[in-house]
Amino acid sequence: MEHIKVNLPKSEEGxxxxxxxxxxxxxxxxxxxxxxxxxxxxxxxxxxxxxxxYYPKLRHGxxxxxxxxxxxxxxxxxxxxxxxxxxxxxxxx
Length: 93
Prior knowledge:
By secondary structure, the protein is of the alpha+beta class. The protein has helices at about 10-15, 30-35, 80-85, and strands spanning about 1-10, 20-25, 40-50, 65-70, 70-75. The chain has one domain (about 1-90). A 5-stranded antiparallel β-sheet has the order 1-2-3-4-5, with helices on one face.
Protein backbone atom coordinates (compact mmCIF):
# COMPACT_ATOMS: atom_id res chain seq x y z
CA MET A 1 0.00 0.00 0.00
CA GLU A 2 1.14 3.51 -0.82
CA HIS A 3 -0.04 7.01 0.13
CA ILE A 4 -1.73 9.53 -2.11
CA LYS A 5 -3.53 12.79 -1.25
CA VAL A 6 -7.28 13.05 -1.82
CA ASN A 7 -9.64 16.00 -1.25
CA LEU A 8 -12.79 15.86 0.88
CA PRO A 9 -15.09 18.60 -0.46
CA LYS A 10 -17.26 20.62 1.91
CA SER A 11 -19.93 21.37 -0.70
CA GLU A 12 -21.25 20.27 -4.08
CA GLU A 13 -19.44 23.25 -5.60
CA GLY A 14 -16.20 22.13 -3.96
CA UNK A 15 -16.73 18.65 -5.35
CA UNK A 16 -17.20 20.03 -8.87
CA UNK A 17 -14.10 22.24 -8.50
CA UNK A 18 -12.08 19.46 -6.90
CA UNK A 19 -11.30 21.50 -3.78
CA UNK A 20 -11.51 20.46 -0.15
CA UNK A 21 -9.66 19.13 2.85
CA UNK A 22 -6.52 17.30 1.77
CA UNK A 23 -6.17 13.87 3.39
CA UNK A 24 -3.78 10.98 3.06
CA UNK A 25 -5.19 7.72 1.69
CA UNK A 26 -3.53 4.32 1.47
CA UNK A 27 -4.12 2.73 -1.94
CA UNK A 28 -3.21 -0.39 -3.87
CA UNK A 29 -0.84 -0.56 -6.87
CA UNK A 30 -3.58 0.09 -9.44
CA UNK A 31 -4.83 3.26 -7.75
CA UNK A 32 -1.27 4.52 -7.20
CA UNK A 33 -0.44 3.94 -10.88
CA UNK A 34 -3.61 5.80 -11.91
CA UNK A 35 -2.64 8.68 -9.60
CA UNK A 36 0.94 8.81 -10.92
CA UNK A 37 -0.19 8.78 -14.57
CA UNK A 38 -2.87 11.49 -14.09
CA UNK A 39 -5.74 9.17 -14.94
CA UNK A 40 -9.13 10.90 -15.10
CA UNK A 41 -12.73 9.76 -14.71
CA UNK A 42 -12.07 6.50 -12.90
CA UNK A 43 -13.07 5.53 -9.38
CA UNK A 44 -11.06 3.71 -6.74
CA UNK A 45 -11.22 3.09 -3.01
CA UNK A 46 -8.57 3.50 -0.36
CA UNK A 47 -8.10 3.62 3.39
CA UNK A 48 -8.13 7.04 5.04
CA UNK A 49 -4.85 7.46 6.92
CA UNK A 50 -5.79 10.46 9.09
CA UNK A 51 -8.89 11.84 10.79
CA UNK A 52 -10.96 14.40 8.91
CA UNK A 53 -11.45 17.92 10.28
CA TYR A 54 -14.39 18.65 7.94
CA TYR A 55 -16.20 15.41 8.83
CA PRO A 56 -15.43 14.62 12.50
CA LYS A 57 -17.01 11.15 12.31
CA LEU A 58 -14.76 10.20 9.37
CA ARG A 59 -11.76 8.59 11.03
CA HIS A 60 -8.46 6.95 10.20
CA GLY A 61 -8.97 3.42 8.87
CA UNK A 62 -12.26 4.03 7.03
CA UNK A 63 -12.52 2.85 3.42
CA UNK A 64 -13.47 5.75 1.15
CA UNK A 65 -14.21 6.06 -2.59
CA UNK A 66 -12.57 8.73 -4.73
CA UNK A 67 -12.52 9.86 -8.34
CA UNK A 68 -9.36 10.49 -10.31
CA UNK A 69 -9.20 14.02 -11.76
CA UNK A 70 -6.24 13.90 -14.15
CA UNK A 71 -3.48 16.29 -13.08
CA UNK A 72 -5.66 17.55 -10.19
CA UNK A 73 -5.97 15.83 -6.82
CA UNK A 74 -8.57 13.01 -6.58
CA UNK A 75 -11.86 13.90 -4.85
CA UNK A 76 -14.30 11.93 -2.70
CA UNK A 77 -17.89 12.30 -4.01
CA UNK A 78 -19.73 14.90 -1.91
CA UNK A 79 -22.95 12.86 -2.10
CA UNK A 80 -21.14 9.88 -0.54
CA UNK A 81 -19.75 12.02 2.28
CA UNK A 82 -23.18 13.51 3.06
CA UNK A 83 -24.86 10.09 2.98
CA UNK A 84 -22.31 8.49 5.32
CA UNK A 85 -21.07 11.36 7.53
CA UNK A 86 -23.55 14.22 7.25
CA UNK A 87 -22.70 17.84 6.60
CA UNK A 88 -19.23 19.18 7.38
CA UNK A 89 -18.59 20.61 10.84
CA UNK A 90 -19.91 24.20 11.09
CA UNK A 91 -16.50 25.66 11.90
CA UNK A 92 -15.29 24.60 8.43
CA UNK A 93 -18.23 26.06 6.55
